[in-house]
Amino acid sequence: MGKWKTLIFLLMAAMLVLAACGNDKTEANDDGYRLVEKGKLTYAASGLYKPFNFEENGELTGFDMEIGAEIAKRMDLEPNPVTNPFETILQGLVANKYDAIIGSMAYTKKRAEQAAFTQPYYYSGGMIWVAEDNNEIKSPEDLKGKKIGVIAQSTYEEPAKELSDNLQYYSSDVVALKDLTVENRLDAVITSDIVGFEAKDNGFAIKEVGSPLWVEQPSVAVKKDNEKLRDAIDKALQEMIDDGTYEEISQKWFGRNLLDIDLENAELLE
Question: In angstroms, rounded to a whole number, what is the distance separating the alpha carbons of residues 183 and 205?
Answer without folding.
Answer: 12
